[in-house]
Specification:
The structure holds two protein chains of two kinds. Chain A is of the alpha+beta class. Helix content of chain A is 51%, strand content 16%. Chain B is 36% helix and 26% strand. Classes of the chains: A alpha+beta, B alpha/beta. The structure holds adenosine-5'-diphosphate (ADP) and magnesium ion (MG).
Chain lengths: 470, 235
Amino acid sequence: MSVLARSVGNAFRNKVRTAAVVAVLAVAIGLALAMLVANQAVTGKVAELNASVGTVLTVNPAGGQGFEGGGEPLTSAQAATAAAVPNVSSVVGTKALRLRNAAQIAAEAASGRTGQGGPGGQSATSVTTSLTAAVDAGTLGNRNQASTGTSGTSGSTTAAAPAFSLPITATGIGAGVDSTGKALQLTQGTGLGNYTAASTGALLGTTLATKNGLSVGSTFTIQDKTFTVQGLFDAGTAFGNNALYVTLPTAQTLAALPDELSTMIVTVNSMENVDAAKTALQAALGSGKADVTQGQRNLATAVSSLDSVKNISFIAFVAALGTAGLIILLIMVMLVRERRREIGVLKAIGAPNRTIGLQFVLEALVLVALGSVVGAAVASLASGGIASALISSSSTTAAAGQRGGPGGFPGGQGGPFGGASQLLTSVTASASPGVIAAGIAAVFGVAIIGALVPALLTARIRPIEVLRGE
Amino acid sequence: MIEVKNLVRTFKSGDRSIKPVNDVSFELEQGTLASIVGKSGSGKSTLLSLLGALDKPTSGDVVVNGVSLASMPDGKLTNYRRRDIGFVFQQFNLIPNLSAVDNVMLPMEFAGMRKAARAERARQLLEQVQLDPDKHVRRINRLSGGEQQRVAIARALANEPKLILADEPTGNLDEQTGEHIIELLSTLSRDHNTTILVVTHDRALANKTDRRFRLQQGRLTEEPARNRATAAVTG
Ligand SMILES: Nc1ncnc2c1ncn2[C@@H]1O[C@H](COP(=O)(O)OP(=O)(O)O)[C@@H](O)[C@H]1O
Ligand SMILES: [Mg+2]
């Protein structure tokens, strides 16, 4: 029989009481773990938002956005200027191109619908491709097409006119991010490697690839040049997936505009510096030359509400942890008082203080271990519910704040960023083993502290206690 | 050899103070079987607790084989209780949720003896105190009073102490069982040269010991020496 075996035995001496103590501990530990899991999930989300969207500024040419508007294009020199602004951690240039199916253009030309004049703005040239758009023009596409005005002849409304097909957006990017600064979600293949060098690799949206029967390793042409599919991405929207990415120099070459940028995606080093950096950036580039927008103003609200969830869950974690420690402390103090005489016996037969103290600490740890097992089970069932309850109560505020925010993004990509509430509900509180392990380690730490006080109390019990009541 | 020198223990309760042990001095040679008789409340348990370092005297000293308890720090006193003393109590004071063997093994565990060795020795000791082998692994609270006291004596012997202090070891037992226990202690002192000091109410039991002391209101007096062999014949 060792100290440990004796402690385990003692922990089960009064089975009813042990069950009650374990149940109470399990509630406290389960709550602590659930709060920790919720906190980790929200912290992860906040970090993710801050790292990408929350700290991203978009620079457009003054007076222009995407393929709309006018003004002077941005240049590589301006990108260098932007990079030198304090608190700017990265500047990624993009160059957007409109790709049109070569066969389609030929057919339209033949039917009298001459090549699309373009809606003005920066995309001076339409670029031909072997790809077919993954989105049908439909009512909206045809209406847009009519209003932006083809310079077709008056007799162009012939019945034989082929259906108009939408262009495909090709974006040259200076890093593995989409046009809003978010990392590309590749579903297959790899990235393009060095995004600042010319390359014949391309990343295709999933639906575009499917429409054209392409997979990783397939080839297609842009402007009669052959490109290889190096990866597929999922932007999450039909519009976003009817697009492809090439490296920035490649796009500039295709457009024959080597120094031009459509937009710059400027990432600021932290959330707090975004406002200051925006002002500085606007000043550095000149208000007549560039428009600096913080696309995700609404996300600031989202992040701050997530931050409060983070704080609440952390406080709840600490409180539940403290409760578990307190339960241990009180139970062990009670046990020490109850076993005063027995401790006296142990001392009378020569037990060193540390042996007795250790025996009580181990007994407390046995109770905590049982409480943790039950508590972890409770937490893994409850944490998802707790996290979403915490978040849904705060996302109402965030969603309300979002309505006042600016509209869509260049290219009309409002979708993935339109909903801060969408981001909030996508916080998944899964009980990851690492977090649970860290939580249980914290529980054990607190339990040892809680058990140390009663263990030290045993040192003060004198061996003469053995004679009490004789 | 144990020397008790002018031992005093004072308890204060309110403005009154009592001296259950009042200037007690005596010496015991190694291997002596001695008894203390006295009325309830005369200070017998208090004296024994001072000899066994369960309590500290208000003044005076106990010297065991030339080493003074008064000068020992607490850690050394723990060692003294573990190695040099075996205590047997009226209430047995065994750990109720452990088996007989586990109880006997406890002092050996505290002394750092290896597990196999202490299990073996515990078994031998329980045989020596004549506990049925099938009761060795039985939980203490499933044993009779006499059996529990045998286990307690085995535990007291665990680390081969020089001095066994027995505080009314037969007080909770019937007459016959009590006699067996005293005989057991008597045999032990003879066979192992262990000094045994036994507190008892029972005159007949006291008469079987080598030296007999009487404690009255904290003061110790010795009754005329008797030869143990004579005691056995007349007793
Ligand atoms: N811790 C204590 N505090 C106060 N008085 C005590 C304490 N322990 C014992 N006494 C008193 O000392 C006297 C002797 O007690 P004790 O040694 O137990 O007597 P005995 O064992 O001979 O019956 C009693 O009056 C008892 O009440
Ligand atoms: Mg007594």
